[in-house]
Amino acid sequence: MKTASNSDYRTPLPQGPVPRNPDMGMSGDFSKSSGVTFSRVSVPGPYVALTFDDGPHASNTPRLLDILRARNVKATFYVIGKNVDLYPGIVRRTVAEGHEIGNHTYTHPKLSSLGNDRVMSEIRKTDDAIVRACGIRPKTLRPPYGALLQNQRQMIHSTFGYPTIMWSVDPLDWKRPGSGVVTSRIVSGTNNGAIILVHDLHASSVDAMPATVDALLRKGYKFVTVSQLLAMGSSGQASTNARPSALVNAGQ
Ligand code: NI
Q1: What does the pLDDT look like over 70-110, one tens digit per residue?
Q2: What spacing in Å lies between the alpha carbon of 145 and ligand 1's midpoint?
Q3: At what angle do helices 88-96 and 60-70 cross, to 10 degrees?
Q4: What span, in angstroms and rounded, lies between the C-alpha atoms of 82 and 178?
């Protein structure tokens, strides 16, 4: 019997073939001038970004990586710096399997109530931990609780080059509503250019991923990383921001 608190639960191996995401050999280079905040991106097709916050977690993240690998799905992991220092090997595996790593601060504070020095050190320590773990510098930030003031977003963008990445689909999986509910909320809320928020900290959230990913693939969605989604939104766009309507900025 599986319960939300049973962290030993292992997703059964797929019975028969599972749908497979196509290979997405596209660039993740996005124009730094394209925007400071995104909750979704206007893209020319059924592309979506699946994002996982608050890891890496010792058992849930590897289990999630197995699920994604079976389907050739690449995702973006907004990791907490102190967890990166605890489990650098999981971050290395995540990168080796084609996923993107993003910055989710070092101790997961509410940045909007901190002074600039604390904000910058939270972000810099995480940036450094990620580079130590996997050799790759992150390109985007997700603020814990989505809490970041507009002037902080500007400061972080100009210092680190990070756009602030919010989300357009939130299944409230951290409240543990049950896997079926998480799946149906994500599937019904997703449209082209969506950024989907999930937490790989929770076993019950990972439990929901096989059915969620399979349902979205069967609906024709293609999974890309956040940077690839941003790059697609700014493709053909001059660095002068000539076509700002190609991008949808989140409410600031
Ligand atoms: Ni978080």
Answers
A1: 999 999 999 999 999 999 999 999 999 999 999 999 999 99
A2: 6
A3: 10
A4: 28
Q: Is 199 a catalytic residue?
A: yes
Please tell me the distance from the alpha carbon of residue 136 to that of residue 154, in angstroms, as a whole number: 23
State in Å: Cα 114 to ligand 1 middle: 16
The catalytically annotated residue of 57, 99, 104, 199 is: 199
Locate tokens 């602030």: which residue? 164
Answer yes or no: are the C-beta atoms of 38 and 227 closer than 8 Å.
Answer: no
User: pLDDT tens digit string along 123-158?
Assistant: 999 999 999 999 999 999 999 999 999 999 999 999
Q: Domains of the chain: which residue ranges?
A: 37-248
Burial label for 64, CB within 10 Å (0-12, 13-18, 19+), is: buried
C-alpha 24 – ligand 1 centre gap (Å): 27
Beta strand 100-103 pairing with 164-165:
unpaired
pLDDT at 248 over 80: no
Cα of first residue to Cα of last residue in the chain, in angstroms, is 44
Token pair listed for 107: 């101790």
Rounded distance between C-alpha atoms, residue 109 and residue 223, angstroms: 29
CA of 188 to the centre of ligand 1 (A): 23
CATH fold for the domain made of 37-248 = TIM Barrel (3.20.20)
Residue 146 C-alpha to ligand 1 middle, in angstroms?
Answer: 8
- What is the C-alpha to C-alpha distance for residues 57 and 183, in angstroms, rounded to an integer? 21
Specify whether 53 is catalytic.
yes
